[in-house]
């Protein structure tokens, strides 16, 4: 299956898009480095704030920017975290500037590992670098008795070359499937802690991270 771009919205809807052409993302005449990526990221987000763009409007640009980074800066995809004997997942921060609100990291999950059902409290862009991950998407359908009630909407399997973007209140859980660990590059905005939750579909409750 060819690589695709994906958008996951607050309502759990997952839409597929053709990615940009690789030759449109190459920078053959100027060295492209991580600091250039971060500068372009700041420019995109500042422009979105000044012009009142919604996440749905600027997330496609961020997906393309992540593809540009991976295509031109080879070492990023080689920054694979090592799991410890007591952990099935681990992360490696690629940018750790004090006060900088953006998170850029690689993450590894061993086969069979899964996450809680959660949102991120901010937008996110996740590129699959190795292995396969099954994402299950949910939406919140409040009831008078259970205001944090969620229902499953869809599930997709993402693999090498796929890039998904998620809106602030998009709800999902992730499972590493197949025989090899999964590795992803994860880019997140400035987390709004008041909107960051993990969900329990059995008790119909949500908890702050």
Q: Return residue spans where pLDDT drops below 50 for at least 5 consecutive residues.
A: none
Q: Fraction of residues in helices?
A: 10-25%
The residue-averaged pLDDT reads 94
Strand composition percent: 35-45%
How large, in whole angstroms, is the Cα Rg?
17 Å
Looking at CATH, the homologous superfamily is Jelly Rolls
User: What's the architecture in CATH terms?
Assistant: Sandwich
Largest sheet: 7 strands, mixed
- The coarse silhouette is globular
CATH domain fold name? Jelly Rolls
Instruction: Report the span from N to C terminus.
Output: 35 Å
CATH class annotation: Mainly Beta
> How many helical stretches?
2
Encode the helix/strand succession as letters. EEHHEEEEEEEEEEE
Oligomer: single chain
Short summary:
The protein is an alpha+beta fold.
Structure description:
With 209 residues, the chain is an alpha+beta fold. The chain has one domain (5-194): Sandwich (Jelly Rolls). The chain is 17% helix and 36% strand. It has two helices and 13 strands; from the N terminus they run E-E-H-H-E-E-E-E-E-E-E-E-E-E-E. It has helices at residues 34-51, 55-72; strands at residues 5-8, 14-17, 89-95, 103-109, 117-118, 124-130, 132-140, 150-159, 163-166, 171-177, 182-188, 197-200, 205-208. The strands form three sheets. The protein has a seven-stranded mixed sheet, covered by helices on one side. A three-stranded antiparallel sheet has the order 5-12-13, with no helix packed on it. Strand 3 and strand 4 (103-109) form a beta hairpin. Helix 1 (34-51) runs antiparallel to helix 2. The longest helix has 18 residues, at 34-51. The relative contact order is 0.22. The mean pLDDT is 94.
